[in-house]
Sequence to fold (331 residues):
Amino acid sequence: MLMSWCIAGFDNTGYIFGTSSTLFNQGLLQLNTTSLPSVVQDLISHFLENVSEDDNDIAEYYPNPFYKTEWAEVDSIVEDTSLYLVDGGEDLENIPLVPLIQPEREIDFIMAYDNSMDTLQGWPDAVSIIKTYERQFTNQSNHTAFPYVPDSQTFLNLNLTAKPTFFGCYSNNLTDLMEEVGADNVPPLVVYVANRPFTFNSNTSTYKMSYENEEKIGMIENGFAVTTRKNLTLDDEYRACIGCAILQRSRERLGMPLGPQCQKCFDEYCWDGSLDSSDSYNINFTADGMTNDSDTTNASSGASSLLFGKNSFMNTWGVIAAVLVVCMISF
Fold:
């Protein structure tokens, strides 16, 4: 007889969203590394210090979900009725991957969307995911493992930021890594998806605090294009490839063969270990998101108001915008 009972607990899909916090504190920390005139530095520093001292840019979660629980090792987290969060970007880990790769979670698959402003043009160069990879070799790792990833220049040169890239596709290639970091659990397969100008220049500054409706729609539409490979027009089998990635760890545990469809997908999207650290990267973009050596491009830089980036890039409009924003917050 066919049973219609629902069985729960065997599969779980989670969605994590982030919180921006201590944004202007980071600006204050990097202020002295810039080439701005001392007068301008003093002006910006004055306003940023006021924001920092008043805690106006700190994310507070109340009630604290860890209050009086046994699930936190830090006393201040357990004893405080509020949970205060710091922006992960302060150590360049803009994608919150570390909480997801904890062994207790036993997660098989992660979609990692990178909207960082790493390059001078305001696009990701994967430093966030690289920092998570490097963290596993430090004392903070807690014996967690994260798949191998290349350096930032390789990400750019090999177009690994131009289309979704799968890391950790085959668990039998991760045994040495797991042994090195003392991990008992196989790390998840990570699908890395970087921001790209398919339909809209979505590389706007972190300090842009308001958007017109057309800009909002443009950002959402471009996000859809990035997520779906331009609504599957760049690869009509991409849905199947994501399915293969989601089921890969389960398939490996069961000893099931990969199959021709998934093998084709993995050949297309899995990083094969190649490296290219040369400085030949060109910032132009083609219609399919790839970079080329042409002098023409379909995407201009929308990051002209960037104030503090990874490379401490600054310009006059960025300074003015930041000061105005801080003035509004302070007063």
Confidence is low (pLDDT under 50) at residues 294-331.
